[in-house]
Amino acid sequence: MKVAIIGQGYVGLTISAFAAEHYEVLGFDSNSKIVNQLNLGKSHIEGVESALITKWIKQGRYKATNSGLDLSEAVVVVIAVPTPLTSDRKPDLSYVESACKTIGENFFKPVLIINESTSFPGTLRNFIKPTIEKYSPNPVEHLYAISPERVDPGRSDFNQKNTPRLYSGLTSEATAKTREFYSKFCDNLVEVSSPEVAEAAKLFENTFRQVNIALVNEFAQIAHALGISVYETLDAANSKPYGFMKFTPSAGVGGHCIPVDPTYLAAVAEEHQAPATFIRRANEVNLEMSEYIVRRVAEDNGGSLQGKSVLVVGVAYKPNVADVRETSAELVIKHLRSRGAVVSWHDDIVGDWKGEKSAPLAGADITVVVTMHDSVDEKNILASAPYVFDTTGKVKGAKGL
Ligand SMILES: NC(=O)c1ccc[n+]([C@@H]2O[C@H](COP(=O)([O-])OP(=O)(O)OC[C@H]3O[C@@H](n4cnc5c(N)ncnc54)[C@H](O)[C@@H]3O)[C@@H](O)[C@H]2O)c1
């Protein structure tokens, strides 16, 4: 059975690697460089080993392509393309639209179409289905379903196999076929009554994280103002065995999901005249955290950062990955530079970023730790500058939140 997976990024390639054990996978990506690399057996995604892609290619179970014509024999099509925000922070479905165009123009017999891209409730029913129909030269009765992706890049304890997967189709036949498709490589399938519930659940999961991270970030500022340790207070609260879940403060939120998905929920809420107050404010609190941190660093250093050499440690959005999408390090660096600091950064996992290279972990006036990879030694951080501010709570002996 042939399966086409549209988008070969974090989500699409991860699914491809799991699905190839059971199906013949056609990995479609509009980026020809990615396609060429994949066909050479080179994975560009952390957590997907090149050796595995090579193995599937050799066994004839995987092929990457950027030609829609190659897809037509597939009977299941999975959409895994980006759903970012526009420059004015509105949902941007242009990549989804382009994936729908590829599907509409290349599938003339009914197939099962599953959306894994994150979007607001109603996207499958009111956007994906009509858009595919718009681009189909003749009417085709495809089956439509949603199964939002929950992959957490860099995580080894939860993967495609053991992470519960929500799913629902526009019809009962679509729901049943979706269950059949995923049951080969996912042990825990959770059916919900409509695609809208699955779409909303995915957004709510990430909004829950965003709001709680904002709350703890605000609390870190309160604790500092009161002269008490935020970390000790959080540990104390966490001794309650029920009704509390511990989140830790940080320089903000990063990655493709937490800073973006809640805005999709807020946008659809406001379109339906429902409030999105917490969601909007949480986003602001998280974005303001970088400015707060730089202010604290400046205060500790005589009020001015003019001409000081500042080393930012860790520019990936979270530990042990090279992903810099929406990283809060970017805002920290921006605020440091706007105060006249001479900023370099150290992150051996990221290596190159925005035309700059990772600097040695040494010789700064000030070090600010934004993301702490396991490979970085605490002692080297403390030795890198006479003043170290740690936003992660992991460097003992440093100043911090
Ligand atoms: N990365 C995560 O941790 C994660 C987790 C859960 C859900 N999601 C969601 O999954 C979706 C995909 O995210 P991602 O992280 O895999 O993105 P990504 O940027 O890593 O990969 C997307 C890929 O799609 C390709 N692409 C873009 N438009 C295309 C088109 N029209 N046709 C074919 N290929 C196209 C890009 O070249 C890229 O390789 C998003 O909606 C995201 O919110 C991501």
Number of strands: 15
Tally of helical segments: 12
Shape: globular
Mean pLDDT: 96
Distance between the termini: 54 Å
Biggest β-sheet, characterized?
A: 8 strands, mixed
In what order do the strands lie side by side in the largest sheet?
Answer: 3-2-1-4-5-6-7-8
Topology order in helix (H) and strand (E) letters: EHEHHEEHEHEEHEHHHHEHEEEEHEE
Helix/sheet category: alpha/beta
Task: Work out the strand percent.
Answer: 5-15%
Ligands bound to this protein structure: nicotinamide-adenine-dinucleotide
Q: In percent, how helical is the residue content?
A: 25-40%
Rg over CA atoms? 23 Å
Low-confidence regions: none
Could you give a short description of this structure?
With 401 residues, this protein is α/β, with parallel strands linked by helices. 39% of the residues lie in helices and 14% in strands.
Could you explain how this protein is built, in words?
It is a single chain. Helix 4 crosses helix 5 and helix 10 (277-300) crosses helix 11 (328-338). The strands form 3 sheets. Strands 3-2-1-4-5-6-7-8 form an 8-stranded mixed β-sheet, sandwiched between helices. A 5-stranded parallel β-sheet has the order 10-9-13-14-15, covered by helices on one side. With 401 residues, the chain is an alpha/beta fold. Helix 12 links the parallel strand 13 (366-369) and strand 14 (387-390). The chain has helices spanning 10-19, 32-39, 50-58, 94-106, 123-135, 172-183, 195-226, 230-237, 261-271, 277-300, 328-338, 378-383, and strands at residues 2-6, 24-28, 62-65, 76-79, 112-115, 143-146, 165-169, 189-191, 309-313, 342-346, 352-353, 356-357, 366-369, 387-390, 399-400. The longest helix is centred in the middle third of the chain and has 32 residues, at 195-226. Nicotinamide-adenine-dinucleotide is lined by residues 6-12, 28-31, 34, 80-83, 95, 98-99, 102, 116-118, 149-151, 153, 256-257.
